[in-house]
Design goal:
The protein is α/β, with parallel strands linked by helices. It is built from 9 helices and 11 strands. The chain folds into 2 domains: 2-122 and 239-250, Rossmann fold (3-Layer(aba) Sandwich), CATH 3.40.50; 127-228, Dihydrodipicolinate Reductase, domain 2, CATH 3.30.360.10.
Length: 259
């Protein structure tokens, strides 16, 4: 499996470093696309990949799968082009799927082209449980409570404050840069309208904490994830980058664990 990456930032560099260590050379990053030529050329020199600043040339390179490690806007601009070029796609900026019409259009396109879109679990866990519990439609309630520092929410409060309570649909509209986890949870489970979201600004918070609860025919569960930030970029949870790495490393495996 030959991989291309869109983006030259922290996640791209993390993936280049880690995939280069994988003993299974059936999985390799060979191409990188970006606008920053200085950084791109540096990555090419350090990791033996080819850097492109022309997207068409990037897609024409010998890659089977593209990892988007850029922005929501890039997903909306380039996802269809990637699929039409006959490549599989990993989307890290899942906020793009807050646009349900865009998501449905991509679903139709991948069905037509016989390609796959992979959506990493990101900064949360429990996605396998949510999907399994809903396999026969037996999932009744899903909620996520996110606790963050006020600064990360663009706020200045002195005490714990409930910023939002409502549906994932509303949360995504009001906090598009802070609630990607709600999108992943909604896609895996009972949808944006039924998935409940609470956002808490906590001046004492040093990590982003997500508490996921679900109730259904299977029983019930509760999972708390306290995220450490990436060393190079405190705005990104380390688990978000690791979830992309997990997808790539499993591409070369004939034995798949989990759904």
């Amino acid at each position: 499996m030959k991989i291309g990456i869109i983006g030259t930032g922290n996640i791209a560099q993390f993936l280049l470093e880690e995939i280069s260590k994988v003993e299974n050379r059936d999985v390799a990053i060979v191409s990188v696309f970006g606008r920053n030529q200085e950084v791109g050329k540096e990555l090419a020199a350090n990791f033996g990949v080819t850097f492109f600043d022309d997207f068409g040339a990037f897609l024409d390179s010998p890659i089977d799968l593209v990892v988007e490690a850029a922005t929501v806007e890039v997903v909306k601009q380039m996802a269809s082009e990637v699929i039409n070029a006959g490549k599989h796609l990993v989307v890290s900026s899942v906020g793009a799927f807050a646009d349900s019409e865009f998501y449905r259009e991509l679903q139709l396109l991948v069905d037509q082209k016989g390609k796959d879109i992979f959506i990493p679990s990101g900064a949360i866990g429990g996605i396998d449980i949510i999907k399994s519990a809903n396999a026969l439609g037996g999932l009744h309630e899903v909620s996520i409570t996110t606790r963050k520092s006020p600064a990360s929410l663009g706020m200045n409060v002195d005490e714990e404050t409930i910023v939002f309570e409502g549906s994932a649909t509303e949360a995504i509209q009001l906090f598009p840069k802070n609630i990607n986890v709600a999108i992943v949870l909604s896609l895996a489970g009972i949808g944006e309208e039924k998935t409940r979201v609470a956002i808490i600004a906590d001046p004492k918070a040093t990590k982003n904490t997500h508490t996921i609860k679900a109730v259904g025919d299977f029983g019930q569960f509760e999972l708390v994830v306290e995220n450490e930030p990436m060393k190079r970029n405190p705005k990104t949870s380390a688990l978000a980058a690791l979830s992309i790495l997990s997808i790539l490393k499993n591409m070369g495996s004939r034995v798949k664990v989990g759904s």
